[in-house]
């Protein structure tokens, strides 16, 4: 009897380990689509210590050297301020990706269509879920932010930024799609350039906006799946508008 | 010279009259789609006088007689409270359409796909834009409401209700689509039954929600065009969810 109990315990342990393994895998494929599990990051706007640490790393020369705003006047240098956190880092557009990966540990995914699976939606605002998306020869940044625009009423804001210039961004269209519980919500727009501030895009509400109850309807077990697709064609701008 | 001046004046008058005529026409066809111009109605929640007038009309027998809530217990009688305004009217589901047309002067349109063109979006909240839509053998009610859920921050809420039971409503899917300024927003869901309260659908935010800045981006000259389509197939519920 004791043998069977021990065997049963061992099987349970194996199942638990297997579950932990799957949970730990940050990228997996489901139904032919690349699904990226994105864990939340508390906004560092209110955590000057980490910003200070980032600054210290920059000063130690671990990251590319900072370029000050005066660089705007030099056509060879593009001022590029990291749009996330209150990070004082600045650099060329070409090194933004390595900065985001190395300093902010943001994952980068390949593919024209991916699913962004944001976990722990219940966490209090402000919280960010961020991923980079490499597609059509460019890198994009998807930001999902939980923020209290109106005190006591957190909302979710999702937008896509091109790690490139506004002129380059004009050549793309991104689509964010939520689909669950007999509801479907699609947002299509031209991505903004990372040279524009993500905070202003969100404060203007020129992005996909979800209130908490709608986010709950679209989420499954505390995770929100957002389908992402990027195209180069400007189909919807040329179509006759309704 | 005086003759020419008078002729010119007459031509101007004719142009003005023609313009007024077009403006007054509430339904017209553009680009093959039926476009319905919907003027705003200030929410009567705060105007007990009109509600009292409606009540008076009902009492005078102009409208179908009221059925009190006790009718719920009789399976032959469906309690049907008008979801708009604070109208105390109640009646059978079959007479809701005539009540809405006669008392609240709400237009009814035919067609599987129509464009709802809400005018004067700048008007202060609370304001409603309402239309009935006859399609696939049923009548639907589209409600666009401007409301201040958070004081000083008006938002727009759009939803579609079936003038029928919740079981009937489950057989349909409605789509609301906004398309302008290189942005597209689509909302698809199962319509709610008119037996459920439109106020609770809106307060839950289980509908298309737009903040003021996004509504401005989608509107043209103070009018917001919402493409509406209704289908019977439950395509999106049977599809693999992302």
Automatic annotation (TrEMBL), chains A, B:
<dbReference type="GO" id="GO:0005737">
    <property type="term" value="C:cytoplasm"/>
</dbReference>
<dbReference type="GO" id="GO:0043161">
    <property type="term" value="P:proteasome-mediated ubiquitin-dependent protein catabolic process"/>
</dbReference>
<comment type="pathway">
    <text>Protein modification; protein ubiquitination.</text>
</comment>
<keyword id="KW-0479">Metal-binding</keyword>
<dbReference type="InterPro" id="IPR004162">
    <property type="entry name" value="SINA-like_animal"/>
</dbReference>
<dbReference type="GO" id="GO:0008270">
    <property type="term" value="F:zinc ion binding"/>
</dbReference>
<keyword id="KW-0863">Zinc-finger</keyword>
<dbReference type="InterPro" id="IPR018121">
    <property type="entry name" value="7-in-absentia-prot_TRAF-dom"/>
</dbReference>
<dbReference type="Pfam" id="PF21361">
    <property type="entry name" value="Sina_ZnF"/>
</dbReference>
<feature type="domain" description="Seven-in-absentia protein TRAF-like">
    <location>
        <begin position="134"/>
        <end position="228"/>
    </location>
</feature>
<dbReference type="GO" id="GO:0031624">
    <property type="term" value="F:ubiquitin conjugating enzyme binding"/>
</dbReference>
<keyword id="KW-0862">Zinc</keyword>
<dbReference type="GO" id="GO:0061630">
    <property type="term" value="F:ubiquitin protein ligase activity"/>
</dbReference>
<dbReference type="Pfam" id="PF03145">
    <property type="entry name" value="Sina_TRAF"/>
</dbReference>
<comment type="similarity">
    <text>Belongs to the SINA (Seven in absentia) family.</text>
</comment>
<protein>
    <recommendedName>
        <fullName>E3 ubiquitin-protein ligase</fullName>
        <ecNumber>2.3.2.27</ecNumber>
    </recommendedName>
</protein>
<dbReference type="InterPro" id="IPR008974">
    <property type="entry name" value="TRAF-like"/>
</dbReference>
<keyword id="KW-0833">Ubl conjugation pathway</keyword>
<comment type="function">
    <text>E3 ubiquitin-protein ligase that mediates ubiquitination and subsequent proteasomal degradation of target proteins. E3 ubiquitin ligases accept ubiquitin from an E2 ubiquitin-conjugating enzyme in the form of a thioester and then directly transfers the ubiquitin to targeted substrates.</text>
</comment>
<dbReference type="GO" id="GO:0016567">
    <property type="term" value="P:protein ubiquitination"/>
</dbReference>
